[in-house]
Every structure is written in C-alpha cells, then in structure tokens.
Design a protein that fits this description.
Distance between the termini: 12 Å
Helix content: 55-70%
Protein name: Acyltransferase
Number of domains: 1
Structural class: mainly alpha
Keywords: Membrane, Transmembrane, Transmembrane helix
Number of helices: 13
Radius of gyration: 21 Å
C-alpha cells in the first residue's frame, strides 16, 4: 500500500469507531431530535453527525473487507484462504476476555447500579441477556441466528456477520478453484446450508463486506473509476440520503420500505468503496524509499489499532458509565443537550476509547479482526 492509502484506511477506521460511540451514547444521554426544546446550529450538527451510526458500521465493514482483500492478494492462491482464517482465529481469541469482562460489567451494573432502570426498563437501548447459552453461543458466533447477543453488547451480531462472511468467501473460493466436480458440489452445499441459516439482515452486510474485498483484491487500480470530486460527491450524497430516510419504513409500500432500511447502507458502502479505489492506485514503495512515519502518522496508527476493540467492547462499558452517572451523580437519562452534557459525552467517549486501547494491549490482539494487515 502507498502511504496515502494506508493513512486513509487508518483514519477512516478510528473515525468510524468514534462515530459509533457517539451514536450509542447519544441515545442514552440525549433526548431524541424531535423532543428538543431549542434546536441551535450546534445541536443540529451534533444530531446529524451522531446519527451516522449505521453508516459508520458500513464503513467499518468495507475497511475490514479491504484488509481481507489485501491479504488474499499478497498471498499465493492456495494459501490465501487459510491465511485469512488464521488471522481471524488469532483475532477471535480476543472475544473470550471481551465476553467475560463485558458480562461482569453487566452483572455489576444490573445488581448495583440499576436505580435508573437502565439495565431492565430500556430494551430499546439493549436487551441484557446474561445466560450461559448466550455466552457460549456468542463465543461460537451463533448470534443472532440461534442465540441473542450476550449481555448488553448488541454489537456482537455484526462481529458474527463478519466471521460468517469470511467463511462464505473462503468456501466459495476453494470450491471454485478446486476444479473437481465433487469438491465444487460439497462447497456449494455448504454455502447453501450456511446461506439458508443466516437471517435476512445478514445479506446487506455481506454485500458491503464483499465490496471492500473487491477493492483490496483487485487493486491497485490502474485508473480511477470516477473523478475524485465525483467520488466524494457520491459518498456525501448516499450518506445524506441514508441519514434523511432514517428509520422510516413508510417511504415505500410494504415490504419495500423494510428492505430499503436494510439495504440503504449498501449504498453507503458502495460510495466509500469507490472513494477507496481513487486512493488505492500507486504500487507499494520499496522499504528503503519510504520515509519514517511522522508522529501524527504513528498516533493515527495507534488509534486505528484500537478501533476494532472499541467496536467490540464499548457497549457494556458505555452502559456502566451511564449507570454510574445516573445512580451516583444524578445525571438523568435522555436530557436536553447543553454544555455540561456535551462535556460529559466527550469524556465518556474518550474514556471508552482509552479503555478499549488498554484492553487491546493487554490481550495482545490490537486489531481485533478488522485491520488484518499490521
């Protein structure tokens, strides 16, 4: 990768993680936009940006797919799929301590810090399912098809979608390249079995991930697909469209309204993938010709290295911090925005990201499965 493309990927990775934290914290700490007493310019900008949670998920999936495609491209065809699974397995080792620590945070919060009813009375935020069935089901990536996500960590369903997307890609590539009818038949049967088992919400996210795989596997691109300004305009347009449609299923007749809500994020992933092809053009520079990364570049890499753990771990910690604020300091849930609320929000997001970085360093798998190439 050239330096500019690598910086673009790292920056996009940690920004998407921060936007996810803002998105989830906003629902706990601030009232809905329609309930605002006064809609200042700052409030309008904040609510627009903090509402880009699922759009950030789409960017995260494209980035993960790009790193997977880059890995497959640099490996021999016969070894690429196994190398991809090995990378995923090493990152999967981080899931066990994340599940244990998240479960402990949820148990402590539900028993000692539930005066506001956060853990029991707000299923719209998170349904806290603390059972051994959910624990082992999530450990083996069976959520949400067979078991609910464990504890308050609703983000775990996306982690499972990434894993099963990787499995589908590996099975399809190996079956196709084998050239033997019986192996192709077995591969097709396994793919169909896995496809029939996954819920309908899986398919848009698989499509988004495969867009990223295509960018990484086919690049560096010899010529831009579109003009760079057109690529930025396309991304801005699809983000604006996705944001303005919101969660309204009445925009189209049933069942198309529900399908629009599921598949509109594919447009965001497509816009981001097109922009990535603009930057993924130059061949990788020889190591001797590359200058040492600057301080800002190293900070950017560290932030990106913690992004996946922030995605994977923030929800239980976010619930705990919100419960502490409500029970110990009287900070009510879903308040009108103000200076103090914005300051507390910034502190909470920073604390969550710092805790994710520390946890990633302790576990020893800083990329958590998203940045497959260090």
């Amino acid at each position: 990768m050239n330096r500019r493309f690598e910086t673009f990927l790292d920056t996009s990775l940690w920004i998407s993680a921060v936007m996810t934290l803002l998105y989830h914290f906003r629902f706990l700490m601030f009232v809905d936009y329609d309930a605002l007493h006064e809609k200042s310019g700052v409030d309008q900008v904040f609510y627009f940006l903090s509402g880009l949670g699922h759009e950030s998920f789409a960017v995260f999936f494209v980035l993960n797919g790009i790193f997977a495609g880059l890995l497959l491209r640099r490996m021999p065809p016969a070894q690429g799929e196994l190398a991809l699974l090995r990378h995923w397995w090493r990152s999967h080792l981080a899931l066990l301590p994340v599940l244990v620590l998240g479960g402990l945070l949820d148990l402590a919060g539900a028993h000692f810090l539930n005066g506001s009813g956060l853990y029991s009375d707000f299923p719209a935020f998170s349904t806290v399912t603390l059972s051994w069935t959910a624990f082992f089901g999530n450990l083996f990536m069976l959520q949400p098809a067979l078991v609910p996500t464990f504890g308050s960590n609703g983000m775990l369903y996306l982690y499972a979608y990434l894993w099963w997307s990787c499995c589908l890609l590996v099975l399809t590539r190996r079956a196709w390249r084998s050239g033997k009818p019986w192996r192709m038949a077995i591969g097709a049967a396994l793919v169909l079995a896995l496809a029939s088992w996954m819920p309908p919400t899986f398919w848009p996210w698989l499509t988004i991930w495969l867009l990223g795989v295509a960018v990484g596997l086919r690049g560096p691109w010899p010529r831009p697909l579109v003009h760079p300004l057109a690529a930025w305009a396309l991304l801005a347009t699809v983000i604006l469209f996705s944001r303005l449609t919101g969660a309204r299923t009445d925009l189209l007749p049933a069942p198309w309204g529900h399908m629009l809500m599921q598949w509109k994020y594919v447009l965001v992933g497509m816009g981001f993938a097109v922009l990535a092809t603009i930057l993924h053009r130059s061949p990788k520079l020889p190591a001797g010709d590359a200058a040492a990364p600057s301080l800002l570049a190293r900070i950017n890499r560290h932030l990106a290295a913690s992004a996946s753990m922030a995605f994977l771990f923030h929800f239980p910690l976010m619930m705990m911090l919100t419960a502490i604020g409500a029970d110990l300091f009287g900070h009510q849930l879903m308040q009108q925005p103000g200076l103090l609320c914005y300051v507390l929000l910034g502190c909470a997001v920073t604390l969550c990201y710092a805790a994710s970085h520390a946890l990633a360093r302790c576990i020893g798998t800083p990329d958590g499965g998203a940045r497959l190439i260090a």
